[in-house]
Amino acid sequence: MKKIAVTAFVALSLAACQSGGSGIGTKQTVGALGGAAAGGVIGSQFGGGTGKLITTGVGTLLGAYLGSELGQSLDRADEGYAQRAATQAYAAPMGSTIQWNNPESGNRGTITPIRDGRDNSGNYCREYQQTVYVGGKAERANGTACQQPDGSWRIVS
């Protein structure tokens, strides 16, 4: 039981030390750390001597992989909400702000079309401003999306 408590404390401490930027501190990273801790604890319950070290290592690696995959799917959920908002913004009146919110993660954002026109190929394009709030921190960006001949939209900058 003491091993479980120590392992959980170390994993949570490492997760708490993570900060934003370069993908560190994302739900995928935290999921990997939590999965590694849980997998290591479970693996340590099997075997003896060298075998115990091997099962602990395998459990840690497998747990990290599974935790990472779970965390990544949560990031994909944020992306899905943002993509639906972008699709609405492509058809919204100029200057309208479309909002999205992922109640699971608490992450949210806005996207506002600010200018439209045509590119060199004659495709209809929209310039937009977007703000994404992750962990309470705002990240702002501008971009341009152009409508393709099949009706889909592609971000070009």
What key attributes describe this structure?
2 domains; five-stranded antiparallel β-sheet; 3 helices; disordered N terminus; 5 strands; alpha+beta; 157 residues; 25% strand
What layout of secondary structure does this protein have?
Layout: H1 2-17, H2 27-43, H3 50-91, E1 98-101, E2 108-118, E3 124-134, E4 137-147, E5 153-155
Antiparallel strand pairs: 1-2, 2-3, 3-4, 4-5
Helix pairs in contact: 1-2, 2-3
Biased composition (Polar residues): 96-110
GO cellular component, one term: cell outer membrane
Keywords: Lipoprotein, Palmitate, Plasmid, Signal
In short:
Keywords: Lipoprotein, Palmitate, Plasmid, Signal. The chain is an alpha+beta fold.
Mean pLDDT: 72
Strand order of the largest sheet: 1-2-3-4-5
Low-confidence stretches: 1-24
- Structural Rg: 22 Å
Question: Helix/strand/pairing class, anyone?
Answer: alpha+beta
For the record, give the distance between the C-alpha atoms at the N and C termini, rounded to a whole number: 53 Å
Number of domains: 2
The biggest beta sheet is recorded as: 5 strands, antiparallel
- Using DSSP, what is the number of strands? 5
The number of helical segments is: 3
Order of helices and strands: HHHEEEEE
Shape: elongated
Q: Helicity, in percent? A: 40-55%
The share of residues in extended strands comes to 25-35%
